[in-house]
Design a protein that fits this description.
single chain, five-stranded mixed beta sheet, 345 residues
Length: 345
């Protein structure tokens, strides 16, 4: 089943106003499946999401599972077709999507999610919702967000890689021998295992970049290049190796590009404002954090604000009437103060 969503302006970008979702349920049909790879992975330029219960096992989605030749024969055409059409698997490898109720079966990865290159830029996370509610299939949550509103990713800072410590470890690293009679599957497993060991050794000794709260989400590589040209021409002008007009033109070009990037980012941000981000938009528009309490008349200190708000939200209750003296005799009228004074005299 293919579902087509017409996205409003600003959801993806100006070149994509169409979003396609293919939800498939594939069942065994002899040595094939009811949904063919060609029908499941069409070629589209718009953002396309393909997901569903495909009932296939593959080592990419379930690397800990030992696959038979039958499972490899069934699942390989789907992943080959996805790779040819530039679809990427969104599942976290090894995270199960099916938990059977009986002990005769084991957990498996049967629900697969793929995104093409146009949608992969907007992919944020893929998470299963546990535990399953009334079914042995778990519900999956796929979050898409605008790249301009995403925080900068944590990358590896290769400038501070400890190569003096890594080099002897790489020399002493022992890798498994290649298979004597290699098959495409066994050769891929051996290569992936060796690459994982080498990559883990290098990345574990490389610190990550920590983007601060001052990181600019609207900054682009083009702005970096314009900023370098601006500073380079400024240094040349100070050394009398460049005319002031050329340095001024480079500075104006840099400043205008920054203002344009800010306006585009602000327009994209306002186009995607919802009930959760409306207060962030207000704070950005105000330029500073809004006051937690509005200024009250004749109340400037916290004590005066407290004394003003308490009577407003918690007004004092009126005093109850005094209780009657002769409660046991309801038919007898109460005594008046004059009668009490006369009796005492």
């Amino acid at each position: 089943m293919a579902v087509i969503f017409h996205s409003p302006d600003g959801l993806f970008d100006t070149s994509h106003n169409l979003f396609r979702l293919y939800n498939a349920y594939s069942i065994p049909n002899g040595h094939t499946r009811s949904v063919s790879p060609v029908d499941l992975f069409p070629q589209h330029d718009c953002p396309t999401l393909v997901l569903g219960d495909l009932n296939i096992h593959h080592f990419v989605s379930d690397p800990t599972r030992l696959l038979s030749g039958y499972h490899q024969f069934i699942s390989s055409p789907y992943f080959d077709r996805a790779l040819a059409q530039l679809f990427s698997l969104l599942n976290t490898p090894g995270v199960y999507t099916r938990f059977p109720f009986t002990s005769n079966h084991r957990p498996a990865v049967l629900h697969l999610s793929f995104a093409n290159s146009a949608l992969l830029l907007y992919f944020s996370s893929w998470n299963p919702t546990l535990p399953p509610t009334g079914s042995y299939h778990t519900t999956l949550s796929i979050i898409l967000s605008t790249p301009l509103l995403k925080p900068p990713p944590r990358g590896l800072n290769w400038k501070f890689t400890d190569w003096d410590h890594i080099s002897p470890l790489l020399t002493d690293l022992t890798l498994a021998a290649p298979p004597a009679l290699p098959t495409p599957n066994s050769l891929d497993l051996w290569f992936d295992d060796s690459l994982t060991k080498i990559t883990h050794l290098i990345t574990s000794n490389t610190p990550t970049k920590c983007p601060s709260s001052y990181s600019k989400q609207w900054w682009t590589p083009e702005l970096t290049q314009l900023r370098r040209i601006h500073h380079h021409t400024t240094r040349l002008m100070r050394k009398n190796q460049c005319s002031p007009a050329l340095a001024r033109a480079a500075r104006n070009t840099d400043f205008k590009a920054i203002q344009t990037a800010k306006r585009v980012h602000w327009s994209q941000f306002l186009a995607n404002v919802d009930s959760q981000s409306v207060w962030d938009a207000r704070k950005i528009a105000a330029g500073r954090a809004p006051d937690r309490f509005r200024t009250l008349e004749n109340a400037s200190s916290p004590t005066e604000i407290n004394n003003t708000l308490l009577p407003h939200f918690f007004p004092p209750r009126p005093s109850p009437p005094p209780p009657l003296i002769l409660l046991a005799f309801k038919d007898v009228p109460p005594l008046s103060p004059a009668e009490v004074s006369y009796a005492l005299r």
